[in-house]
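hey team, just a heads up i'm posting the complex here instead of the shared drive bc the drive is being weird again. everything in one block, sequence lines first with there labels, then the predicted structure for the whole assembly after. its two chains so it's a bit long, scroll down
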Amino acid sequence: MTTPNVPLWEVFIRSRNGLAHKHVGSLHATDATLALQAARDIYTRRGEGLSIWVVPSHAITASDPSDKGMMFEPAESKIYRHPTFYDVPDEVGHM
Amino acid sequence: MAAASIQVSETPLVLYTLRRADDALILGHRLSEWCGHAPMLEEDMALANIGLDLLGQARELYSYAAKVEGNCNDEDKFASLRDVRQYRNLLLVERPNGDFAQTMARQFFYAAFADLYWRAMMASRDTTLAAIAAKSEKESAYHLRHCSEWMVRLGDGTDESHRRAQSAVDDLWAYTGEMFQADDSERGLIEAGIAVDTAGLRPRWLQTVTSVLSEATLTLPNNDWMQQGGRFGRHSEHLGHLLAELQSMQRTFPGATW
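-- predicted structure starts here --
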């Protein structure tokens, strides 16, 4: 089985109301309509979804893995950016 | 020793239910033959999903037929231990898969019918059939959408896909008439509000088919002569081969489970 010259699509599924769409994988399809149907057939067979987005893979601009150091390491040493340095009064309850 | 075929007491309701169950089983089995062979992985899954929907419909209908018959037959026996002449499916659904266009055209003609049929059957006075219809209608609606999209892409695609799609439509056309026929045993059920008069569904079926084929730049065949016989057990040579594969396990090892 080959899929020559068939565009690649990224699939995002929202599993419940109130949750965000999450990337679940990719697939090949000739156009958006068939990509949506293929996503339904491949990624929601076990009742995983209430809503599907498909996006042409080429529309995604990705960070370069070799830029990892420059991109992400500077944030690792800045623990003061985590909201853990103050006390939450008990009356606030679960946040 | 090979297991012998069962006897079935075909009262009108048993026969009616078996006919619909056989449609679903045979068409579902045809789609399962694509597993691992479809033009692309995504379509392999799509065809298997449709096949599983149909198999699920067949199981519910067989179980109901067994209950109505009340003769210690069950869904497995109906599927595995009836011979070609005892099968009551439409000739359309036993047509060989052929190329992808043949499979899609066959599925499209059937789904366009099944979608209307199940929707109408939701109003059946038989509550079990009405419940099966309510579940099957959603499945059929999706099958129709999927097949329609493919018909348009095949018909309005390349020269070769157009040629293959047109030839599939022409080859299968004579097998579409049987869906809209009823015999005396069905007419009694229609009058009792249990069955649907499918002849009344044909104008809307034709409307759907015409509109999709025209978008697909395909020509609607104009021959009116229609094949028939499947509902009475008169099948093409293809069904025997299909059943040989479908039934070989239970015929060879009766009652085998795993």
